[in-house]
Amino acid sequence: MIKKYFHYTILIVFFLVTISPAIATQDDNTYYVSNDGSDDNDGLSPDTAWQTIEHVNTFRLSDNDILLFQRGDVFRGELRLYKTPVGVTIGAYGDGDNPVLAGSIAIENWTKTSHASLSDEVYEADISSMTIDDEQGIHHLFVNNELMTLARYPNVDSPTQKNWLDVDETAGTNGFKDAALATLAKPDDYWKGATLRIRNYSWTYTISKITSSTGSTGKIQAERLSNQLPEWGYFLDNKLEEIDHPGEWFYDAATKKVYLYPKNTQLPF
User: How many helices (H) and strands (E) would you count in the chain?
Assistant: First the structure.
C-alpha cells in the first residue's frame, strides 16, 4: 500500500527532533514514547513507553522532566505540552535515525471516484473519521514524500513549476478580464469560491477568494483585489472540477473527502 500524507499544520511538518543531553536529577521524571508502546502504560521506561503524541499532550509534565522519543520512529501530530511546563528536555533514545515528529496524517483506503464531474483516473478517500479543522483545511498533500499540486488552472506538473495567465484589462475595483478565460466557455460563477493568486507588485502577489465570474467575458471578481494592471500574472486554484492533470488534488470540507489524480509512477494503490 502506497501511503499518502496531508498536512494540516506547517510549522511542525517533518521536524527532526533535536537531541539534547538528558541528565536527570533525583526529582526529574523521564518519559518514553515509542510506536510499539501503549498509551495505557505509565511511560516511565522503554518497556512501558507511551505510543502517541496525542497522549503526551494530555499528560501534565512537571518542570525539568525529560521526554524521549524512540529513534527510528515517526510520530504524527502536533506536540503541545499541557500547561506549558518549564525546562522540559525533549530528546531521543535507542538506536537508529533520529525520530521524526510530523504534522501529518496518513490517508488510506483510496478508491476510484464516483464524482460525476471527475475523470475515472481520479481517486477519493473519506476522512470523516479524522479530526480536521474546517477553517484551516488541508494545506498540502504528499505522495511518497512528493508534494502534490492543489487543483488549478492552468495546469503544471509540480507546484514548483510556473505557468501563469495574464490580465487583459482591469474591470473596475476588485475585478479584471482575460480573454483566455472566456475561451474556456465556463458557466457564470464557475470560479466562484476558488482561489485567485495574482501579482500585485513587482515582487509580491495577493491571494484572494473569487466572489463571481462571467464566462462569456472572462471576468473575475475577487475579495480585496483593487485595480489590476494589464499583463499582471495570475492563476486559479482550489477548484474541485479542475482536477484534470496527474498530481492534482482537492479537499472537499463539506463531504470530508480528499480527491487525487495520481501520477503514473504512484500507481497502483
Answer: 2, 23
Q: Which of 141, 132, 2, 77 is nearest to 69 (CA)?
A: 77
* Count of alpha carbons within 13 angstroms of residue 50, beta-carbon side: 20
Task: Show the CA angle centred on residue 51, arms to residues 49 and 56, nearest 5°.
Answer: 90
What is the length of the chain? 269
Cβ partners under 8 Å of residue 27, min gap 6? 64
Evaluate whether 198 touches 209 at the Cβ level (below 8 Å). no
Q: What is the CATH number of the domain that holds 56?
A: 3.30.1910
Mean pLDDT, contiguous 10-residue spans, the chain (269 residues): 36 37 58 98 98 94 96 92 90 96 88 94 93 80 93 97 94 93 97 95 90 97 87 96 97 95 77
Going by C-beta distance under 8 Å and a sequence separation of 6 or more, which residues neighbour residue 123? 110, 111, 112, 113, 259, 260, 261, 262, 269
158 inside domain: no
Name the residue range of residue 227's domain: 165-237
The number of folded domains in the chain is: 2
Is residue 3 situated within a structural domain?
no
- Contact assessment for residue 99 and residue 75, using Cβ atoms and an 8 Å cutoff: yes
Three cell numbers, residue 218: 472572462
In this prediction, residue 189 carries a pLDDT of 98
